[in-house]
Design goal:
Layout: E1 5-11, H1 19-28, E2 32-38, H2 43-53, H3 64-71, E3 77-81, H4 87-96, E4 100-103, H5 111-118, E5 128-130, H6 138-148, E6 155-163, H7 166-172, H8 191-208, E7 212-220, E8 232-239, E9 243-250, E10 261-266, E11 269-274, E12 281-284, E13 290-293, H9 319-336, H10 346-365, E14 369-370
Helix pairs in contact: 1-9, 5-10, 6-8, 8-10
């Protein structure tokens, strides 16, 4: 059995949106040991996070710089779970101290930051990882296997969407103060693309293996939670091998908490998966017969593996387990010093950001943007 990889965390305190998820997921399979942190610049939140995450008080630090200076020789990696604008600073700080990085998505805020990072590390490195947790769902991995095996023939169309209702719902309830301030500012890339679209691109790349070629897109501000803030996007994207992808995402769609869905259409069948029914794949064969597949359905090879069956079928696994699966794959890649089938590269993360920026350009100009 491997010794857990020792990590420190920047951000991700108990008052954050996703900190607790990172903490549980990294520990679920005993792959990582969280030993130090600067979880918040607020001393009270930092201390409370340490208590809840079982990190000793003498391993809590007031700043990221103080943390890394103190523990660089004691840990193997740093987890970054801070607002997007600070990612570049902390990634380079960790690399300066010869530490590996596990970053919440998106990896960086814009294309220029990606260029600067890729001038320093190879796109397929095992130094910097970005969490694409939805690819950790066993059913998504089963879809990938079926596409790669040719089970649905040649894939020509993907429909991928991530509608959410948070901005419209909170606006209607006069609770926009509940939205984190950093989510209310668009840069070269709209915040909603940084937040949602990078997941959609990662799913297309992961399941189908294609890369983007050109895009048309339309961005809109619907809710006015912040003047001019983009909160709904439609994009038509041409990927390699003549794959056409329709992407729709946003935070103005009432009735959807997280309506993430991917539908893949081939010449001999189709597959679709909905995040709110995470154990099920809806499939159709070349005769148009429709089937519902779960973890132990005949022919389900990936989902039947022991690592994905922490408990037997009929007792659904979910979001945090998928997060933990991705953390386990990162741990394996770190130990092997080689990316595996389930760890998406820094290059894929950069590709998603380049496509996100192209979506903004296509919407602004009304023209197709080539990548």
């Amino acid at each position: 059995m491997h010794k857990p990889i020792k990590v420190a965390m920047i951000g991700g305190g108990v008052n954050s949106a996703v900190g607790r998820v990172h903490e549980i997921a990294m520990k679920m399979d005993n792959e990582f040991d969280l030993v130090a942190g600067c979880f918040s610049r607020n001393p009270e939140f930092n201390a409370e996070s340490g208590r809840q995450y079982n990190v000793p008080a003498n391993k809590l630090y007031p700043s990221a710089e103080a943390l890394i200076d103190a523990v660089a020789h004691e840990v193997d990696a740093v987890v970054i779970a801070t607002p997007i604008k600070s990612h570049a600073q902390y990634i380079h700080l960790a690399l300066d101290h010869n530490l590996r990085v596990i970053s919440d998505k998106p990896l960086l805020a814009n294309v220029q930051e990606c260029k600067e990072l890729l001038a320093r590390i190879h796109p397929d490195n095992t130094q910097v990882f970005s969490i694409f947790n939805y690819t950790g769902y066993p059913a998504v991995r089963e879809m990938k296997r079926r596409v790669e095996s040719g089970a649905i023939g040649s894939v020509f169309k993907v429909m991928v969407e991530m509608p959410q209702d948070s901005y419209m719902r909170l606006s209607n309830q006069n609770k926009t103060h509940a939205i984190q301030a950093w989510r209310l500012e668009d840069g070269d890339i709209s915040c909603v693309s940084l937040d949602l679209f990078v997941h959609l691109h990662s799913l297309v790349n992961f399941v189908c293996g294609n890369t983007p070629v050109a895009v048309n897109a339309w961005q809109r501000a619907i809710t006015n939670v912040s003047p001019g803030l983009i909160d709904e996007v439609d994009a038509v994207i041409q990927y390699s091998n003549n794959l056409m992808v329709n992407a729709w995402y946003g935070k103005a769609v009432l009735g959807y908490r997280n309506g993430l869905r991917i539908r893949v259409f081939g010449t001999k069948g189709s597959l679709q998966w909905h995040q709110e029914s995470p154990e099920m794949i809806e499939a159709a064969d070349e005769a148009g017969n429709r089937m519902l597949l779960d973890r132990i359905s005949t022919g389900s090879e990936i989902t039947a593996q022991p690592r994905y069956n922490r408990f037997k079928a009929g007792h659904p696994s979910g979001f945090i387990e998928a997060f933990a699966n991705y953390y386990a794959d990162i741990a394996q890649a770190m130990r092997d010093e080689k990316l595996n089938a389930y760890t998406l590269s820094t290059g894929v993360a950069a590709e998603g950001l380049a496509l996100s920026q192209a979506i903004a350009q296509a919407s602004a100009t009304g023209r197709t943007v080539q990548l």
